[in-house]
Write a structure and sequence with these properties.
alpha+beta; Immunoglobulin-like; five-stranded antiparallel β-sheet; three-stranded mixed β-sheet; 3 helices
């Protein structure tokens, strides 16, 4: 009897340890990623979109990336990355915090695009109840569920003051030479 009880206890611990929520990493026409002109959607193959996750609080949102989708599809401004499973720190049906980042593929990461003057953008941080709870398991929660991802406009950093000063100095030298 003790062996049977020990086996059942181990099985339940194993099941609860590996319980994880699911999120559908995709957006809709209502939550497009837009380029700085505010009209044209980001196009296929030019950008990487990444889903950030935190189990505990919005302050820890950069603690983990669930994954990245290189390129944007199936239409400009849209991405379709598939279903992602949260770490076992978020049980199926539990609430977790998320954010979406996007940047030009010519940069290795979001931070590199920000530092290197590329085109980049980040959504606001939002919370969602993950899917996967119940029996049968509920489908993955869409990022666009109420209160979720709302889309964002990519930004282009302004030129630095030093760069503008050098450009102005070069223009004055060119004008003086004439």
């Amino acid at each position: 009897m003790k062996k049977l009880l020990a086996a059942i206890t181990c099985a339940l611990i194993t099941i609860s340890t590996y319980g994880q929520g699911t999120v559908n990493f995709a957006n809709t026409a209502a939550t497009l990623i837009k380029l700085p002109d505010g009209v044209t959607g980001a196009t296929v193959g030019q950008y990487t979109v990444e889903l950030l996750y935190s189990a505990t609080a919005p302050a820890n949102i950069n603690a983990m990336s669930l994954g990245a989708n290189t390129g944007i599809a199936p239409a400009p401004g849209r991405f379709l990355g598939g279903t992602y499973t949260t770490p076992n720190t978020t049980a199926p049906g539990a609430t977790a915090w998320f954010a979406v980042e996007a940047w030009q593929n010519s940069f290795a990461s979001y931070a590199a695009a920000v530092a290197g003057g590329g085109i980049y953008g980040q959504s606001s941080i939002f919370s969602l109840a993950t899917g996967g709870a119940g029996s049968p398991a509920s489908p993955a929660t869409a990022l666009t569920a109420p209160g979720g991802f709302t889309g964002f406009t990519m930004t282009v950093p302004e030129p630095s003051t030093i760069a503008l000063g050098l450009l102005g100095g070069a223009a004055l030298l060119f004008r003086r030479r004439k």
